[in-house]
Write a sequence for this structure.
């Protein structure tokens, strides 16, 4: 006779064994397909979304064509609906929309990319009716549309659609882009269009440019608003919209074709004097290996750039162009000038990286000294903490503690964390500034943070050997209680 395991061991083994009632795949499979089907039908009663999901799965089992037909039918139903979607139904509505997009990509795109492209067009075409039916202030529907447009670009690459057909569809989409659902469609589909499709598209928009909306007779012009310059006429607005649409499309097409000159030609001479546009043009010329022309493009905007407004892209591109031309001394001067003006750590790193050995250490010391003397205390502190130069950051706080503004909690909190281990006094001063700000301004929502800061100050006080003229922790807390003793929400936090 074979003896079984001891009772204690047997109980442990029993406890560890999963029950046949546990909800897991293995136990459910044991119920059998027929019983599971009955349960599914029971569970989806009254749940339209779940029923639609089951239909999609059944159609997928039958083949991609059936899924496409099912999705097409659902999209047609959604597009025809006119009822407004209340806020409490908005999440379910968005979930339904997203499930259709996901179904196209999961069930149709892998085997029938041409059908998937057609469905995604239909999906994007629904945007106007969707936006009119619900409040999309949180951007949920917009995000789904953006993803659908990206999907369209991906699937169209493998669909191998005729260039003429695709160009026609892109043209129609750009012209009917009232809700911005097709923003960027030319860029997304540029690879699928290829040079042939892009050239066809260019021809279409050039033809459109030659047929602007007709201007109405002076006595028949409709006024739709007023401005500081006088009445706003409907035909003027239509003409401006038409011109912007054509120009934007032709600019995107030129970019997609790598036609730098065509891209630049879309900007007037006045616009080419704008540093932002000049930087765009110069960047493309530089990428095409035309650095000298890129510098000339930047020169056309130099006067506006020198007027004082910040143009970060212009400065970045100018340095890249000068470097491409081998004018290293000028690039270094430009990097240092930007650092001195903005305390921009990226430009300082680039400057130091290009210095000969040993000169970088001296330049870094000079840069830190410049930062500590900056007129903006908090900007300098941010630079010193992030560089990182913790010792200099602490010295900066101690030397200019009168400039501390506790309202800059977004900076002082991480700065205090960075300096806490090695610089208890500087950390204490920053924490005290935030505590005082919260109480002086009665920022009740910050009392919890301020209370934690006060506990940290008590802990740090034990490590401060020399208060260097600052009030010690006990005296500071006593004064705080005199001024804010009645603010129990803080003291009890």
């Amino acid at each position: 006779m074979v003896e079984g395991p001891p009772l204690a061991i047997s109980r442990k083994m029993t406890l560890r064994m999963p029950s046949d009632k546990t909800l897991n795949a293995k136990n459910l499979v044991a119920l059998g397909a027929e019983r599971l089907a009955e349960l599914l039908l029971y569970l989806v009663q009254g749940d339209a979304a779940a029923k639609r999901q089951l239909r999609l799965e059944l159609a997928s089992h039958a083949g991609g064509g059936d899924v496409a037909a099912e999705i097409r039918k659902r999209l047609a139903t959604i597009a025809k609906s006119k009822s407004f979607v209340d806020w409490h139904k908005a999440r379910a509505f968005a979930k339904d929309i997203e499930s259709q997009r996901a179904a196209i990509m999961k069930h149709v795109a892998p085997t029938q990319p041409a059908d998937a492209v057609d469905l995604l067009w239909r999906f994007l075409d629904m945007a106007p009716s969707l936006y009119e039916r619900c409040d999309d202030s949180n951007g949920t529907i917009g995000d789904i549309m953006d993803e659908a447009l990206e999907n369209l670009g991906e699937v169209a690459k493998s669909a191998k659609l005729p260039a003429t057909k695709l160009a026609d569809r892109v043209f129609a989409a750009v012209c009917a882009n009232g809700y911005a659902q097709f923003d960027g469609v030319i860029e997304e589909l540029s690879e699928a269009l290829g040079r042939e499709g892009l050239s066809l598209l260019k021809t279409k928009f050039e033809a459109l440019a030659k047929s602007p909306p007709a201007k109405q007779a002076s006595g028949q012009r409709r006024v739709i608003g007023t401005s500081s310059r006088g009445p706003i006429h409907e035909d003027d607005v239509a003409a401006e919209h038409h011109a912007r649409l054509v120009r934007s499309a032709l600019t995107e097409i030129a970019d997609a074709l790598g036609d730098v000159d065509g891209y630049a030609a879309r900007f007037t001479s006045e616009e080419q004097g704008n540093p932002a546009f000049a930087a765009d043009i110069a960047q493309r010329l530089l990428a095409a290996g035309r650095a000298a022309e890129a510098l000339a493009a930047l020169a056309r905007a130099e006067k506006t750039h020198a007027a004082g407004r910040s143009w970060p892209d212009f400065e970045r591109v100018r340095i890249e162009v000068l470097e491409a031309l081998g004018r290293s001394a000028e690039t270094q001067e430009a990097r240092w000038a930007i650092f001195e003006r903005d305390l921009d750590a990226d430009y300082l790193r680039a400057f130091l990286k290009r210095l000969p050995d040993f000169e970088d250490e001296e330049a870094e010391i000079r840069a830190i000294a410049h930062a500590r003397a900056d007129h903006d205390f908090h900007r300098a502190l941010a630079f010193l903490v992030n560089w990182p130069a913790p010792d200099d950051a602490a010295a900066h706080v101690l030397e200019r503690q009168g400039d501390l503004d506790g309202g800059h909690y977004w900076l002082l909190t991480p700065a205090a964390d960075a300096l806490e281990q090695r610089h208890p006094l500087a950390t204490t001063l920053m924490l005290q500034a935030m505590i005082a700000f919260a109480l002086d301004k009665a920022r009740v929502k910050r009392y919890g943070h301020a209370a934690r800061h006060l506990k940290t100050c008590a802990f740090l006080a034990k490590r401060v050997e020399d208060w260097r003229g600052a009030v010690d922790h006990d005296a500071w807390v006593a004064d705080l209680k005199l001024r804010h003793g009645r603010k129990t929400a803080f003291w009890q936090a």
Notes: Strands lie at 223-227, 230-233. The first helix runs from residue 7 to 16. Confidence is low (pLDDT under 50) at residues 1-15. The radius of gyration is 33 Å.
